[in-house]
Amino acid sequence: MAQNTIAAETVPVISQTSVPGAQSSCAEAQDGLFWPSLLMAAGLSSIAIGIIWDISWHETIGRDTFWTPAHMAIYLGGVLAGCVGGWLAVIHTFFAGQARRVSSVRVWGARAPLGAWVAIWGALAMVTSAPFDDWWHNAYGLDVRIISPPHAVLGLGMLGISVGALLLVLTRQNRLQHSSAKGAGLFIYAGGVFVLLGSVFILEYIFPNAQHGRAFYVACALMYPARLVALSCAGRVSWPATRVAAVYMGIMCALDWILALFPAQPKLAPIFNPVTHMVPLPFPLLLIFPAMAIDLLLRKADGLNGKLPRVGLAFLLGGVFFVVLLAVQWFFSEFMISPHANNWFFMGNRVWGYNVAAGDWQTQFWRMDPKKSDADVLTVSAIALTWAIASAGSWVGLFFGRWMRKVRR
Fold first, then answer.
1. Sequence-ordered list of residues with C-beta below 8 angstroms from that of 326, at least 6 positions apart, any chain
2. For 58-87, how does the pLDDT look when each residue is reduced to its tens digit (9 = 90+)?
3. Do the beta carbons of residue 304 and residue 313 sit within 8 Å?
4. Which residue from 16, 163, 283, 314 has the least number of CB within 10 angstroms?
């Protein structure tokens, strides 16, 4: 799990001394991904801003038209990432020197870094989802849930772009392994946005009122351990997963605080809650604490090899993730549904949209009566299931994390 050295698992490179001009070509190949990586990260940021803005728009104003600023931010990010990927494909196919050609992946005769190909696929999926989403709303009205069929296609596209951006900045980080921590900053930032986008698609399960229930911990076990463990293994700085979680929390808080400053009113009936400002999303999860535990455990297990030891490590990582998350979110959620969180910082009572009526249910934990059929109680079997899912996710994270440390194309 070495986080600062990956030389033992690198792919062969062209000797800088055996080929005339190879030194300058190699430097060009190393530095040539800075601007594409930066632009890809900008496109990913635009998608993250747009998706948070869009959810807030739905909760505050309603679905008034497809051409909202939030939608434009989402698709701008997709188009930008796709264009960057396409530009890299053109450069590496037609204008690249030998160093760039050997540092790219060939697809149907064209060449580009792996991250560029994944981003191109994601951009195509996002563009395809746009008319599908517009038709869906015209035919069926508002979405009852976040994950509708067109949103599923959009989500796959955003996943493609986020993975593509992550691979591109990862490639640059791994090529610059001998330049201290150069390149790791963009990787950590892209990883934070990657975690944020994953959080959006389990938003229905992570409200503070649901954080004493089984569904919340199962959803978190499905979403976060694989990402945090993989990013911790691949990051070439100290405490990589902790930094990624800090980026996720910082971006989420900043967007929520900024959105809540803008006046807005509902445009669709019925209006049960006459909001006067953009509705923020719930306060982000305190992922920085389980991420810190993952970083610490991986540091202690540095150099561990073999299939059985890795399975044991994954089981331990899953347990640590679940225990730390349970410890922090169980009590923090009690604070979040109390009057003490009703302020601009925690936004406890400001996350409810125009289409929900105020009531005592907003300050209670949901479905906690074990006698009811829809009960969502954290039983012993639910704890075992969550631990098993988190352990499986941690094993996936270890597998891909080891692979990510070798990505250079």
1. 217
2. 899 986 677 889 989 998 999 999 999 999
3. yes
4. 16
Report d(CA 206, CA 203) in Å as an integer.
5
Q: Kindly tell me if the per-residue pLDDT of 248 is higher than 60.
A: yes
CA angle 404, 91, 161 (to 5 degrees): 45
For residues 156 and 169, the answer to whether their CB atoms sit within 8 Å is: no
Residue 106's contacts (CB-CB under 8 Å, 6 or more residues apart) are: none
Query: How crowded is residue 360: how many other Cβ atoms within 10 Å of its Cβ?
Result: 6
Cis ω on the peptide bond leading into residue 270 (within 30° of 0)?
A: yes
Please give the pLDDT value at position 296: 96
Nearest 5°: phi and psi at 70? -65, -45
What is the Cα–Cα distance from 121 to 346, expressed in whole angstroms? 37
Long-range (24+ apart) CB contacts under 8 A made by 48-51 are 48/77, 48/193, 48/196, 48/197, 48/251, 48/255, 49/73, 49/77, 49/255, 50/74, 50/75, 50/76, 50/77, 51/158, 51/197, 51/200
**What type of residue is 122?**
G
- State how far the Cα of 409 lies from the Cα of 380, in Å rounded to an integer: 45
Q: 156, 197 in Cβ contact below 8 A? A: no
The first and second tokens of residue 298, run together, are 């991986």
Tell me which residue has tokens 């006698």.
Answer: 371
- 140 three-class SS: helix
Q: Please classify residue 364 by burial: count the beta carbons closer than 10 Å to its beta carbon, then call 0-12 exposed, 13-18 middle and 19+ buried.
A: exposed
Indicate the angle between helix axes 69-94 and 34-60, nearest 10 degrees.
160
Which two three-digit tokens encode residue 236?
């070439």
Structure tokens at 285: 């999860």
| In the block, residue with structure tokens 């909760």 | 59
Q: Is residue 104 pLDDT above 90, yes or no?
A: no
Q: 251, exposed or middle or buried, with CB in 10 Å at 0-12, 13-18, 19+? A: buried
Which residues are 363's β-sheet partners?
Answer: none
Per-residue pLDDT for 114 more than 80? yes
Statement: residue 13 has pLDDT above 60: no
Q: What letter would DSSP give residue 11?
A: P
What is the token pair recorded at 113? 């870094």
pTM attached to this predicted model = 0.86
Region 250-277 average pLDDT = 92
pLDDT tens sequence across 165-219: 999 999 888 888 655 556 788 999 999 999 999 999 899 899 999 999 999 999 9
Per-residue pLDDT at 23: 40
